[in-house]
Structures are given as C-alpha cells and as structure tokens.
Design goal:
By secondary structure, the protein is α/β, with parallel strands linked by helices. The chain has helices at 8-17, 29-38, 49-52, 64-77, 96-108, 124-132, 148-151, 167-181, 193-202, 223-226, 244-260, 273-278; strands at 21-25, 42-45, 82-86, 114-116, 137-142, 185-189, 207-210, 218-221. The protein has an eight-stranded parallel barrel with strand order 1-2-3-4-5-6-7-8, surrounded by seven helices. The protein is globular.
Length: 279
C-alpha cells in the first residue's frame, strides 16, 4: 500500500496537532528512497551539499544548476516526503523577480514542492513574490550560512548581550517578517533555546530547528552528520545516529585486501564458470 503523500497543508496541520516534524537533507535518489522509507517528513536538498558533497569550505559557490540537478534525483526517490529545494547564494538576492525565476526552475526542472531561502525582514518582499505565484516558501533565520562573511563565521545568533547590539530583537523581527510575508514554515538555526521557544509559541507556522533546542515544532539534520559520514568532528547541535563512515572504510579495505590477494572474484561472481568446468 502506497504511503500517504505529505503536502504543504499537512505540515501546517502537524504543528496544530502537536506532532513533531522531521527533516533531513538529501542529495541523491538512493538516500532519498531510504530516508523516505524511514518516515522522514521533509527532504531538504540543501546548499549544504557544497560542504558535505563537494568538499567546499562554505555554501557560497553552490549554483542553482547544481541544486536543480540534485533536487531532480531526490524527487525521483521519494514517495511520501515533501521535497524542499534550497535557493543558493546569488539565485534570489538581486531582486524578487530573480528569486521568482529561480524558484520556478526548482519546481519545474527539479521537481521541488517548496523552496527555502535565507533572510528575514530584508527578504520579506522576495518571499511575498514567490508565494504570490503559489510556490510554497520556507524561511530561514538566525545563523544564515550564506551570510557567513557578515556574521564573522558560523556563530550563535540572538544571544542576550551578543556580539551585535539588538541581535535578539533582530532575530525576532526576522521570524515575524517571514511569517507575515507568507512562508508556510521557518528554519531556526543556531539560536538560544529560549528564543526559539518564544518564536515557536508566537508564530502560527511551524518552526524547524537546527541548533535551536527542543521547543521547535520540528528538527532538521544534515544527512552526513546523522549517519556519521562526515569527519570525526560533529557540530554540537548534531547527533550521530550511526558510524557509516567507518563501515565504508572497513568494507572497502576488505575489498582491497581480497583483490590484492586474489580472493575476489571467485567462480560465484563469474559468468560461464560451470560450463567451462564441465567442458
């Protein structure tokens, strides 16, 4: 029996019902299929692919073409989950019209069912423009990785007495602006848990936290952190639920050893072996 496909209205109803929302990044069809089977609600094709897949130091060089390509693969692999595509740096900041064109590509060419972009009050008109053509939008405030240079690195945002005056109020204003502009959900990244709780209680749209504590309506993790496919270092806000990186090294090492020792392949992995033996 086919699972019930999740839609944008379903995500809103989950908040109203007090049901927590699960989101995980995905970048290809096989992992999308596995995460979908596991019951993940939202698959985010994040520009984080620049760091965890392409080996870059930031997300900034990721292009819209690359996000479209990866989103297309993820969309093929899921049956139940909602597919959310990231708008990468440079694909929406120039103007609301540019953002609309980029969002259309993600939906039309990539198969995304919603798009995500970073920024609050400064992106309100952009969110409005995308939502006005019936493309669902997820906002993203707090630590916004595309603003890494302005923020001076990946720093917690919204602390009382933080490094920037009025930082806490700015995060609150950003969250309100995203909702008012028409977004259907909001990612809160690396903000104090009490601030995340305040935002979650005030907003009517779901909040999805990453490094924002347990009071959000849902949580998102990067796939490679969740599975232990990244380096031995894991961000404080993440949790490694497996150590697949070590298992990959073990399996590949065993393969190399068998090839070097002439133990692979055997007749079981060859064609025509029985016929040759019989002759």
């Amino acid at each position: 029996m086919e699972p019930k496909k999740l839609t944008v209205p379903d995500i809103g109803r989950m908040k109203a019902a007090g049901e927590r929302i699960s989101m995980v990044t995905a970048y290809d069809c096989p992992f999308a299929r596995l995460l979908d089977e596991a019951g993940v609600d939202i698959l985010l094709v994040g520009d984080s692919l620049g760091m965890v897949v392409q080996g870059l130091e930031t997300t900034l060089p990721v292009t819209l073409d690359e996000i479209v390509y990866h989103t297309r693969m993820v969309a093929r692999g899921r049956r139940r989950a909602l597919v959310l595509g990231d708008l990468p740096f440079g694909s929406y900041q120039a103007s609301p019209m540019r953002a609309v064109e980029s969002a259309i590509r993600l939906v039309k060419e990539g198969g995304a069912e919603a798009v995500k972009l970073e920024g609050g009050t400064t992106m309100a008109r952009t969110i409005e423009a995308i939502a006005a053509i019936d493309i669902p939008v997820v906002g993203h405030v707090g630590l916004t990785p595309q603003s890494v240079h302005r923020m001076g690195g990946h720093r917690v945002q919204g602390r009382r007495g933080g490094h920037a005056p009025g930082e806490r109020d700015r995060v609150l204003d950003d969250a309100r602006a995203v909702q008012a502009a028409g977004a259907f959900a909001l990612v809160l990244e690396c903000i104090p848990l009490d601030l995340a709780a305040e935002i979650t209680a005030e907003l009517t749209i779901p909040t999805i936290g990453i490094g924002a504590g347990a009071h959000c309506d849902g949580q998102v993790l990067v796939l490679h952190d969740l599975l232990g496919l990244s380096s031995d270092w894991t961000p404080r806000f993440a949790k490694r639920y497996a150590e697949l990186g070590r298992e990959v090294v073990r399996a590949a090492s065993a393969y190399v050893e068998e090839v070097k020792g002439g133990l692979f392949p055997t007749e079981a992995q060859a064609f025509g072996a029985r016929a040759a033996k019989a002759g």
